[in-house]
Every structure is written in structure tokens, then in C-alpha cells.
Amino acid sequence: MSAHLSTEEALRYHRQVTLAEIGEQGQEKLKHARVFLAGLGGLGSVSALYLAAAGVGHLHVVDRDRVELENLNRQLLHFTGDIGKRKAESAANKLDALNPHCRVTAVHETITMENGDRLVGDAQLIVDGTDNVETRRILNRISLRKGIPFVLGGVDGMTGMVTLFVPGRTPCFECLFPDRPSAKGPPGVLGPLPGIIGSIQALVAIKFLVGLTHGLLESRLLYVDGIRLNFKTIKLGKNAQCPVCGGNFNPESSSHA
Amino acid sequence: MPEDNSSIEVIINGFKETVPKGASISELILNYDEVDAAMIVERNGRFVYPRDYPTTQAQPGDVLEFIHPDFGG
Ligand SMILES: [Zn+2]
Q: Does A43 touch chain B (CB under 8 A)?
């Protein structure tokens, strides 16, 4: 694969390559980037669309579900005609059609502690599009074990949250949430909320992949309140008691990007 | 209830509240509905880890937010 952009690619990405923050170098980094995206629902639909459109070279997506009618108020990758199809397959079709330069590997599988390492493979970044705590705990442990940063996202009702976990530099998912929440049914969600959160996750991912390491939401939890229409960040300190990472990190270390 | 020697004023989820002096986060949470094992407590812009709830005492003027985390997708 050529390191340089074709004429078609140069035009396709023109409006972002002209940004000083991206440039041709950044675009070439995106072209060689490998991203693992877990979940193709409300969050994953939107982050996948932006990552593919931006020219991420390898997008490895996993979802265990099939498209259902009640998904369609927010899961923008899936259309009415996809009902009953595997989300992985539905997503791969749309992402291929959007950007044939993005090589999409789509897998219909449940992520577990056993298969997680293999599924994540040699990705540079894990993007969370899941809808449950259990899978996030698994992704967190894979992130720590492999030293791969993990962009957390979550939505519920009219609110959402995002942060970036970087092993060795920030707290981890289980620093923040050591306890399992009480079991509830699937929350109500208004479509724009996962749209906002998934978009911010894609922004964090693109910035990370091109090496824009400032303002990555490291040790900050962005909380979006769609009722008051307010965004705020909550500072995350160390949790030395974390049973998983032991709060063992140094925000000043330059172990990534 | 006005502030006196045994109570302090704090702001909880945007509302001014008078609470006992020395009250811990654990004690304050109990007064809020829908207490969940996984909850976000923000104190003056910083995340308070659950393990620190019993030992973190509210100080006069503290701005506290009890937030339900969002785990849907
Ligand atoms: Zn941790």
C-alpha cells in the first residue's frame, strides 16, 4: 500500500487535510490506522460513520445483535430494510459504500474475556459502542493488558458521558466504576444523545490517531446534559485502591502517540 | 434551617442545602433517591471515588453533584 494519498483520496479528504491540525501527514496516519469498535448501536453507528468517512484505514467492528425496528430511532447505520440482518453485516455494507478506502472487518460475535484479546488484535485504539457495563469491563481489561487506549462512551435518556482511558496515564474504567450498577431494563434514549457522544468519541479517536495529544479527555469525564443542554468535564484523580489497575499511572508519562 | 455551629451550607445538584457539619458523602447520598452502587459523585469539579465516600466530609460552600452514570449505547 502506498504511503501517499491518491488523487481521489486527496479530494475526498480535502476539507480536513487543509486543517493545520491534520494535513497530509495526519491523513496518512489515519490511512494506516487500525481501530477496534465494539458495538454498532446508537454510539457505534455514529462513531463508525465518522471514522470511516475520515479515512481510518482499518476498522474492525464487532456486534452480537441483529437489527430491530426499535433500534432505528438512533442507530443511524441501520435502515428499515435491514431489520433482521446482523448489525455487523448491515454496518459493513454502509461503511463500504461510504468509503471504499476504509477496510472494514465486521464480526458477529459476543466479546468475552476469552476471545477479547484476539478480537482486538493489534488495534491502536478501542472505541466503546457497547450498551452494558460487563462488556466495558472486558474492554477495560484488554485495554490495560495490551496497553491500548480506550474511548469510553455511554448514554441514558437525555444525558451522556465520554472519557479516554490511557493505560499508564489515566485512571481506568474500574477505577471509576468498581461496582456493578443495579440491573435495569434498556434505558430510553433520544437519538441525538448517542449522536453527540459517538461524534465526540470519533473526534477523540481521530485526534489520538493523528497525534493531537492535547485535549484528549485524559483524566476528564465529559458529561453532556441534554435536559439543561450543558456540557461539563469532571476531573479524575487517582484511585490507588483500584482492584484492576491499582491506580498505577503517571499523567506526565509519554507512553502513547 | 439557618446555618449554625452544627450545620453548614452546601450546594447539591444545584440546590442550596443545609447539612450537618462533618457529614460525609456517604451520609449525604442516603438523602437522595435512587441510590445506585455505580454512581458519579462530583465535588467541586472533581470525581470522588466510591471508596472515599465515607471519609470525605462536606465543607461549607462545597458544590456537589450526584449523577447517574450512563451505560446505554
Ligand atoms: Zn483502575
A: yes
Residue B4: its pLDDT value, please? 66
The chain B residue lying nearest A233, using CA atoms, is B45
Domain count, chain A: 1
Residue type, A21: E
Tell me the whole-structure pTM to 2 decimals. 0.95
- The domain that holds A112 is classified in CATH as 3.40.50.720
Would residue A231 count as lying in a domain? yes
CA of A139 to the centre of ligand 1 (A): 13
At residue A2, the pLDDT reads: 47
A34 is a domain residue: yes
Q: Considering CB atoms only, which of A175, A179, A223 is closest to B38?
A: A179
Query: What is the helix, strand, coil percentage profile of chain B, to 5?
Result: 10, 35, 50
Residue A246 lies in a domain: no
Q: Which domain covers residue A107, as residue numbers? A: 17-235
Integer CA distances (angstroms), A36 to A57, A76, A204, A239, B59, in order: 12, 19, 14, 27, 44
Q: Over the stretch B20-51, which tens digit does the pLDDT of each residue have?
A: 999 999 999 987 766 677 889 999 999 999 99
Any B CB within 8 A of A237 CB: yes
Contact A182 B40 (CB under 8 A): no
The reply to whether A31 falls in a domain is yes
Q: What's the A38 CA to ligand 1 centre distance in angstroms?
A: 20
3-state class of B15 per DSSP? strand
Q: For residue range A27-76, what is the model confidence (pLDDT) as tens digits? A: 999 999 999 999 999 999 999 999 999 999 999 999 999 999 999 999 99
